[in-house]
Amino acid sequence: MDQRFYDAVLSSPVIAAVKDEEGLRDCLGLEHIQIVFFLFGDLCSISGLVARVKDAGKIAMVHTDRISGLSQNKEIAVDFLKESTRLDGIISTRSNFIRRARELELFTVLRLFAIDSMALSGIDKLEAAKPDFLEVLPGVMPKTIRRIVETAHTPLLAGGLITDKEDVLSALSAGAVAVSSTNPGVWRM
After folding, report:
1. Element (H, E) at 149
2. What is the pTM of this model?
3. Cβ 155 vs Cβ 13: under 8 Å
4. Among candidates 72, 146, 139, which has minimal Cα distance to 112?
5. Using CA atoms, how far apart are residues 57 and 163, in angstroms rounded to an integer?
6. What is the pLDDT of residue 31?
7. By the number of CB atoms within 10 A of the CB, which of 35, 48, 56, 90 ranks highest?
8. 81-113 tens-digit pLDDT
């Protein structure tokens, strides 16, 4: 794992996950926010959006599954982002995207929706993609986070439904190294 990304996560354990232009403007004004997760955009806008984050001196991570126009499950989407933007890395639920991003020397976050025990039983297969971080959603399940931390060999982020300080502290106490949230109030903690 690239130490710069890991260090940024550890030094600022709240990651701004932005879902619209208003959220992007808001997080760019927060000096302590070092990493931005893009949960919106399309093929025409993503390059400019990423440029704004990079110009602000922050790490730009693009959630490939949420970018309009990249809906096909083909690794060429990762190549497109690498060639067309200044992104630092990707977030995806697709292990083939994570593998391709690693080949292209991008940072990687593999998202896992912990909806039932079957989703959790496949963590070892997901880790075969060798992401820099696993992100577990929803992030408000400390017992589940603790169980994943005990079995996974990859640092864990918690995201989804993180709305207040109690949620952040609970996820961090359970073993997550950071949380991602779309809530600007959490970004300001």
Report:
1. helix 142-151
2. 0.95
3. no
4. 139
5. 26
6. 95
7. 90
8. 999 999 999 999 999 999 999 999 999 999 999
